[in-house]
Amino acid sequence: MPLPTGNIPWPPPHLKPALDAMHTWDTWWSGDPDRLEDLYGGGTTGGIDPKPAQYSGGVRGALARWWWGTPTGEGERRTKVHVPLAGDLCAGSADLLFSEPPKFTVDDDATTKRLDALTDDGMLATLQTGAEVGSALGSVYLRPVYDKRLADRPWLDAVHADRAVPEFAWGRLAAVTFWRIVHEEDGQVWRHLERHERGRILHGLYQGTAGKLGRAVPLQDHPATEGLAGMVNDESFVETGYDQLDVSHVPNQLSRRWRANAALKDLGRSDLDGVETLMDQLDETYSSWMRDIRLGKGRIVVPDTYLQSAGPGRGASWNPDREAYAGVNVLRSGDGMALTVAQFAIRVQEHRDTAEDLVNQILRSAGYSGQTFGLGGDVAVTATEVVSKERRSMTTRGRKILRWRPALAHAVEALLAVDREVFGGSITPQRPNIEFEDSVQEDPLQLANTVDVLRRAQAASTDTLVRMAHPGWDDTQVKAEVARIQQEAGTAVPDPMQAGDLP
């Protein structure tokens, strides 16, 4: 299928519900209070009046019922506090998946050597970024890219879900069009569209408006795409050297809100989906807590007689640290002469309990345990106890690995194919086996005790014990360590073929 033609709406209208939801999730993920106020209409005094609007229907009423939709009064400073829990949640999800680099194994030795070079070149950082983006927006796309001016090898790139127009067939990605705005001026919007199909990539440059794609123009008409003009053929596409689609779609979790929408049901679900109201109430709780602190500051109400004039038109002041005062000329003493101290209570425990319950509910709804994010104290425990306490997080991690493993394997195979097509070599592109490392590392002392018990019980060989103690070692390192252990223990048996002539 070719690139779009005609002045069609862009982004495509059928993606509007998903893009609106992604915009909401992205706003919470960004942690920017200004964006939250803009999203819910509570940024200025000219916004929605929450009192009558709370009884209204439609979008106006819905926005007014959000705490972030309450506008700041005229002449008042903003006292709303935002707790960036959404960012912590998405970053924690990425850490569970890629705190350690995954292991890629292939059969061919030459391919293994080249794959090691490709995966060591910043791939872990890309995967961590992609996992965090996918957690926030619901899905992420992985594609191989290259630039001979920058490196002598290709690398993986993570594309955000709100800049993609995917096409699915039987639940799998069949084609996708990535787009970006390369220039805006005088109401004109220049967009670059990059359509990935089986075995090829099509490029197009369009000059339109904010809501319309506009007309196609030559790639060389803009500096952002002029370099592509010499790469594409007469039909505006580049061959990838891979006989399949070179893009992988990684859905975060199963979508719930669009399950009945044929065009959107294959998009992923954000970890923030369904907890937006709880995050709004968490911000309200913390803002109330900070309000108590502001009002709880001790204040002294002083009678006018105690004030010292600063001169005509300059008002009066009172110094609470002054030790001696002149006599006060009054007719009689009474209640009007008393100093009044105002000291409001700060409801620390009530606010803390409410905030902790909201945080736990948000994490539980998103599929995580509070211990994953530091809740419940920092008491030292074994890896087994950690896994037990973080069982919900480990279950969610397992579900995500089920989606990441095949998508990442496909992306690496496409990366190898592009590497051979563009940079040559004798490698054989193949889909690797992927092993995700444990996100919880065993305590070294606990591991040593386990190995010692197995050794004394003669329940495991030296090779097995070395692999348990050093799970990151390869076969060569393990064999060398076993040989050293046997030599030191005097249990090494010489090779009879190397023993010389028998007497």
Structural features, described:
With 503 residues, the protein is α+β, with helices and mostly antiparallel strands. The chain is built from 15 helices and 15 strands. It has helices spanning 16-30, 33-40, 50-53, 58-64, 85-98, 109-120, 123-137, 226-229, 276-295, 348-366, 383-389, 391-423, 444-456, 462-469, 475-489, and strands at 103-105, 139-145, 155-160, 164-169, 172-185, 188-197, 200-208, 215-217, 237-239, 248-251, 299-301, 308-309, 316-317, 340-342, 433-435. Strands 4, 5, 6, 7, 8 and 9 form a 6-stranded antiparallel β-sheet that branches. Strands 3-2-10 form a 3-stranded antiparallel β-sheet. The chain has a two-stranded antiparallel ribbon with strand order 1-15. β12 and β13 (316-317) form a beta hairpin. α9 runs antiparallel to α10 (348-366), α13 (444-456) runs antiparallel to α14 (462-469) and α14 packs across α15. The longest helix has 33 residues, at 391-423.
